[in-house]
Amino acid sequence: MMLNKTKSKYLFRREKGVALIEFSIVATLLFALLFTIVDFALFGYVKLTMQHAVREGARYAITGRNDLDPDEDEDGTKERAKAILQKIDQSSDGLLSKVVVLDGIKVSSNGVYINDGTFGASGEAIVLEIACEWPTVSPIIYPLLTDGKYTFTVKTAMKNEAF
C-alpha cells in the first residue's frame, strides 16, 4: 500500500504544469484570432476612409478650383493637381501618405489616363483612382498576402462642372 501512495504522489507531481501549458496553447490561438479580427476591422476602416477621401477629392476636382494648393508657383499661380491632392490628404485623416503606392494616383477621362495634371476639361467625366497598400499585423493572414500587405484600389467617377 505504501508503494501505491508513492506512485500517486509521483504522478500528481508530474501533472503540475499541465494547466499552464494548455493555457499557453489556447491563449496563443485566441490572440492570433483576436489580431486577425482587429486586422480585418482596421483594413475595412482604411479602405472606407480612402474611398471617402477620393470621393471628396473628386467633388473638389469637378469644380475646377485650385485654392487649396499649399505652395504657389513663382508667378503666384496655383496648380489644380496639388490642390486636389491636398483635399484628398485632408479628407484621409493622414492615411494618404501611409497607404499610397508610388505613382498610385491616376486620373482618367473617357478611358484615357491624363498625365498633364489638368484633371479633365469642363464637362468631361473624370475618374480618380488611387492604388493603395496596407500592412497586416495578423500572423494568420500574413502568409496569404503578397509581402504581407493588402493591396486595393479606390476610385470614383464624376462629371466636371462648367468652369
Q: Secondary-structure map with pairings?
A:
Elements: H1 2-14, H2 18-61, H3 80-91, H4 96-99, E1 100-109, E2 112-114, E3 125-135, E4 149-159
Antiparallel strand pairs: 1-2, 1-3, 3-4
Give an overview of the whole structure.
Helix 2 packs antiparallel against helix 3 (80-91). This protein has helices spanning 2-14, 18-61, 80-91, 96-99; strands at 100-109, 112-114, 125-135, 149-159. Strands 2-1-3-4 form a four-stranded antiparallel β-sheet. The termini are far apart. The longest helix is centred in the first third of the chain and has 44 residues, at 18-61. The protein has one domain (41-159). 17% of the residues are buried. The chain contains four helices and four strands, in the order ααααββββ. The chain is rod-shaped, with a radius of gyration of 27 Å. The model has no long low-confidence stretch (mean pLDDT 84). By secondary structure, the protein is of the alpha+beta class. A hairpin with a 2-residue loop joins strand 1 (100-109) and strand 2.
